[in-house]
Amino acid sequence: MRADNPTEASRWIKQTALGIGFDKVGIARAESLPASFFIRWLKNGFHGQMDYLAGQVEKRLDPGKLIEGTRAVVSVALNYYHADPEPLPQALLSRYCWGEDYHRIVKERLQLLYSRIQDRFPETSGGYFVDSAPVMEKQWAVRCGIGWQGKNCLVITPEFGSWIFLGELLLDIELEPDNPLQRDCGTCRKCLDACPTGALVAPYQIDASRCLSYFTIENRQADLPDWVKSKLGNRIFGCDLCQSVCPINQKQAKTSKEPRFAADPRRLIMDIDAAQNWDKMQFKERYRNSPLIRAGYALFKRNLQIVRDNRKAQLRHP
Q1: Which residue ranges form the domains of the chain, and what is each CATH number?
Q2: Global pTM?
Q3: Could you confirm whether 131 is annotated as catalytic?
């Protein structure tokens, strides 16, 4: 069957995506994104050591240059929120990596969705991505009506807040586009005020090179500046502060239907001193199929030592 009716094809794709288990799905025409803001962001050095962001800029801004013939972008969202474990761990991991690696889980569902689209519309081709290609996923999620861009630069949905994973399909068929949401953060600036390093330099602008998530995941230096160490507190991987203070997140957080995103007790660090003694094999065993495995053992040990030092200093000077 050909996708000759964009409205019917769009409706079918959305119903199929929701049936597979995605929480939101939207569609946009494949067009070239405005370049000026992203180019200026790179020139300011806000990407830090993440040099890959400065590569393949044309493909990043134009999905038609990534996959020739792309006519539509389908954006999907999957809620990952699970409540805080009790008691809280001594060293904090960002909520998104409490459970299994989202890349694999989201990609499994995208692969199934793409397969069903091809079964339904055999002449369709394209591709699907989860952080695996130069795709501006947040910008496309906004264009597809998934949510609006918050002042913390994350996509905020009215149903789930920003506790979502995103994925995209690029398709060479014409589909009925959705309208972006007419929502914003209003006068709220709680995320900007809460950021401990001033990484949110202005509403809707982030200097990623100052973000604690960047320092704990992307920065590979053997040691970190003292001003960063003091701001880390007991965070060992990532930072959720700008999300935790968001009123939408506090009001709309719902437990994910995906149990694999729930906190795995083996990965929670309840005893910092014991974790410091884990060897490389123990680390790999505990964090297999976890986003944290990407950081690697050396980074894990570096971050853990900083948390230990911060904890000792707090005990000395409560």
Answers
A1: 6-83+100-171 (3.40.109), 190-316 (no CATH)
A2: 0.94
A3: yes
